[in-house]
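Dear Dr. H.,

I hope your travels went smoothly. While you were away I took the liberty of generating a structure for the chain from your last submission, since the lab meeting agenda had it listed for discussion. I wanted you to have the full record in hand beforehand rather than looking at slides cold. The sequence, exactly as received, is reproduced here:
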Amino acid sequence: MGGWIVWAVLAGALLVAQRATGRLRLTPLALAAALAAIAGAMAGLAASAIAFLLALVAVLVRASRHPGLGRAQARRRPGAARSARRRSAGARGRAGRGATIRDRSAVLVGRDAIVVERIANRHGVGIVDIGGQVWNARALHEDDEIDAGERVEVVEVRGTTALVA
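The corresponding predicted structure, in token form, is as follows:
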């Protein structure tokens, strides 16, 4: 078997291992092995070994000069959190992609809902349909019991539970 085939198989195995684990940093080694396979196919075994070592040294030198490259880059860049806050600030006040859960639930206040399952706070039961979405529900007043099929209004949203009256 040709030396270049061994390098190609090694490059493939390293890429598969990188993909499978996600934690190991094997992509630079796989790149170096792929370059060694190309050099081996063109010039022989000695050239492939030299190409592997040169590529490996180049990758390691680059990694030592730029330690922030890779997955941890966002954590190490101080401006990343600031720009993320700016992007989410534009979404405030609208119930769409990027809006927070609090923003989306606030839109439900004042809307009509239909009781799907009887609401009884004492028993901890109650489900309403609000515009096609099914929500847990509790009556605004502890003693109220609301039967299924009745129309109610959403007064407040607490987490995943709608308070209705």
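Two observations you may find useful: The beta strands are 112-120, 125-130, 133-139, 145-146, 151-158, 161-164. Residues 69-82, 87-96 have pLDDT under 50 and may be disordered.

With kind regards,
E. W.
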